[in-house]
Design a protein that fits this description.
This protein is mainly alpha-helical. The chain is built from 8 helices and 3 strands, in the order βββαααααααα. Helix 1 packs across helix 8, helix 2 runs antiparallel to helix 7 and helix 6 packs antiparallel against helix 8.
């Protein structure tokens, strides 16, 4: 069997069935992999940095959003129970002690309710939008890595092909043996760029959908919070409104007019 050199790996020519020669690729050696990485180390180093940044964002967002909806629902139920019992002080204390983003929304609503009750809904809506925006923290980096990594890999491909043709011009001869190293390095850069882009785009779309779902849940929780706060306000006003006027006693009754003689 005779090996063919100049290819990314080693292709061996040997006899097959019926005496027909066949080609067998026995894989890439570690030395050839090191050569390919060395030829495109700038592009691969950049893609590695973006890959590590993307993994960091993924781990951070997974930790931040883990069980956020169940925790927020349990917190919402405790706050509403306090409001339904008329204890706004307890509700405010629960908001101060909780690290959840929903706690900031409810706390802002209670603060505005104490000063200007008619602006409570507006304050809750604006704070809810700010809290949902904070849940998208660092997602821009994940989206940037996913959208630009293929172009970085394509740039490495172009550079590798240019090197291949330069090697051909220096050697003064053509053929696959001369250009194989540059083309192989170019394809490595392309593969690395696609690999980074695939997982970054998948993770970005997942987190965007997850945050949108949380935003819808927070909207429903805020509506329940405002309804409970409105019932609390009505409960405070109802005793005064429902108190009947004091009955007029006979001593307080006006004297009947005496008819003229």
């Amino acid at each position: 069997m005779a090996p063919l050199t100049g290819l990314p790996g080693r292709v061996v020519v040997g006899p097959g069935a019926g005496g027909i020669s066949t080609l067998h690729w026995d894989g890439m050696s570690w030395e050839m992999i090191r050569n390919l990485v060395r030829d495109e180390w700038v592009i691969l180093s950049l893609l590695l940095a973006w890959s590590l940044a993307g993994l960091t964002v993924i781990c951070e967002r997974l930790y931040a959003l883990w069980n956020l909806v169940p925790k927020s629902e349990a917190f919402k139920n405790r706050v509403i129970d306090a409001l339904e019992s008329g204890d706004t002080g307890k509700a405010a204390a629960l908001c101060e002690m909780s690290p959840l983003p929903l706690a900031e929304v409810f706390e802002r609503g209670l603060q505005v309710y104490q000063k200007t009750p008619q602006k409570t809904a507006e304050a809750v809506t604006s704070q809810r939008a700010a809290s949902v925006l904070s849940l998208k923290r660092y997602l821009w980096a994940l989206g940037t890595a996913g959208s630009s990594a293929p172009f970085v890999g394509l740039f490495g491909t172009v550079v590798g092909i240019l090197k291949a043709f330069q090697s051909m011009s220096v050697a003064g001869t053509g053929g696959f043996k001369v250009v194989s190293q540059g083309i192989a390095a170019a394809l490595v850069a392309t593969a690395a760029g696609l690999l980074v882009a695939i997982y970054a785009v998948i993770a970005y779309n997942y987190f965007v959908a997850r945050v949108n779902g949380i935003a819808m849940q927070y909207k429903l929780y805020c509506e329940e919070f405002l309804a409970a706060l409105g019932e609390t306000a009505k409960g405070r006003l109802s005793p005064a409104a429902a108190t009947p006027p004091a009955p007029v006693t006979p001593a307080d009754a006006p004297a009947s007019p005496v008819p003229a003689a």
